[in-house]
Amino acid sequence: MAVAELRAAGLIIFRRKSFTGPLEYLLLQTSYGKHHWTPPKGHVDPGESDMQTALRETEEESGLKKSSLEIMEHVQKTLNYEVRGKPKTVIYWPAEVKDYNVAVQLSNEHQDFKWLSLDKACELLHDTMTVALREVDEELRNAAKYYTDIY
Ligand SMILES: Nc1ncnc2c1ncn2[C@@H]1O[C@H](COP(=O)(O)OP(=O)(O)OP(=O)(O)OP(=O)(O)OC[C@H]2O[C@@H](n3cnc4c(N)ncnc43)[C@H](O)[C@@H]2O)[C@@H](O)[C@H]1O
Fold this sequence. Notes:
It comes from Acropora cervicornis (Staghorn coral). Keywords: Hydrolase, Nucleotide-binding. One of its GO terms (molecular function) is bis(5'-nucleosyl)-tetraphosphatase (asymmetrical) activity. By secondary structure, the chain is an alpha+beta fold. About 30% of the residues lie in helices and about 35% in strands. The chain contains three helices and eight strands, in the order ββββαββββαα. The protein has helices at about 50-60, 120-125, 125-150, and strands at about 5-15, 25-30, 35-40, 40-45, 70, 75-85, 85-95, 110-115. Strands 1, 2, 3, 4, 5, 6, 7 and 8 form an eight-stranded mixed β-sheet that branches. Helix 2 packs antiparallel against helix 3 (about 125-150). The radius of gyration is 15 Å and the shape is globular. The structure holds BIS(adenosine)-5'-tetraphosphate.
């Protein structure tokens, strides 16, 4: 019998003081289990699209609403790993906060949050998330470089 796949979706939230400035990524630490760190994300509920889940979970877990974010829908990252023997797929989109100083409000699912540089973030993340984050970071830096070369 086929093993049911777990599916989750979330947003790779980042901030920067200027378009070409250093990027900082928002990571949340779970208050359960091994207290691992991830960007905001969660299980896709029946009838929800991945994006609806990503927005709902981001607001629930960090307090950040869609209106406070610039979402890069054309940059989608897919992670595949196993949780307790079941395949899990997690879909992420990068999203920049419009206000660098925006307040983060955790739910009881998380006990801490950090805004971290790419390298510091990668020290806390699982390997598949590290790969996805490095790809996103490169795309964001390339876009900023293209902008400065043009203007
Ligand atoms: N141990 C626990 N004790 C009590 N309540 C619990 C619990 N685990 C989950 N819950 C409950 O489940 C709810 C979570 O629901 P949601 O918030 O809806 O879903 P989720 O983020 O996908 O859950 P989870 O944290 O389990 O997933 P992840 O894949 O990151 O993490 C799942 C596993 O995969 C690992 N993992 C995470 N990212 C990985 C990656 N990229 N590669 C490999 N492994 C990874 C993690 O270290 C972790 O071991 C919470 O409200 C909580 O109450």
